[in-house]
Fold:
Amino acid sequence: MSKDKHVSSKEKETKKDLEKKVNEEKEVEAAKAEGNTEAAPEETVETKEAKAEDNAEAAPEETAETKEAKAEDNAEAKAEETSEEESAGNDKLKAKIDELNDKCLRQMAEFENFRKRTDKEKEAMFETGAKSVIEKILPVIDNFERGFDALTDEDKDSKFAEGMKMIYKQLMDELDKIQVKPIEAVGKEFDPNLHNAVMQTESDEYESGIVAQELQKGYTYRDQVVRHSMVAVVS
Structure:
C-alpha cells in the first residue's frame, strides 16, 4: 500500500510539472503573440505610409508622363489625319481649279474664234454694202465725165462748168479717201482681171495686146475690182 501511494504521488508531481511547463510555454507564446501584435500594426502603418508616400510621389510623375505621351501621340495622329485631309482637299481643289481653268481657256478660245468670225462677217458685209453703194455712184461719175466731154470750148470756161468741175473733184476726193481708185487702162497691157475687152482695134502707137482705148472707166475698192474697165485692145 505504501508503494502504491508513493507511485501515485510521483505521477501527480510529474503531471503538475508538465502542466506547469505547458502553461509556461503558452504564456511565452502568448507574450510573443502580444509583442508581434503590438509591433506589427506599427510596422504595417509605417510601411503603408511609406508606400503611400512613394506611390503618391511616383504616381503623378507617371501620370503626367503618360498624359504627355498620350497627348503627343494624339497630337501626332491628329496632325497626320489633318495633313492627309488637307492633302486630299488640296488635290481635289487643284483638280477643280485645273478643270475650271481648262473650261475657261476653252471658252476664251471659242469666244476668240467667234469674235474673229464675226469680224470677218462684219467686214464682208461692210465690203458688200460698200461695193453696192459704189456701184450705184459710178454711173453718176460717168455722167459727169460725159457732160465734161460734151462741153464746147466756150462752155468750158463758164461758171456753171467750173461749179460742176468742183463738185466732181469733191466727189472723187471722197471716193479716194475710202480707197476707191480708177483702173489704169490706156497704154497698159491687157489684164483680164482688170479689163473687159469689148473690141479690137488697129493702132500705130501701141503694140498688140496693149489697151488703146478706154470706153468705160473701171474702179477698184481696197484693191478689189468693183467694175472692170471696158476697153479696146490692139489686135
Remarks:
- The domain at 85-178 is CATH 3.90.20 (Hemagglutinin Ectodomain; Chain B).
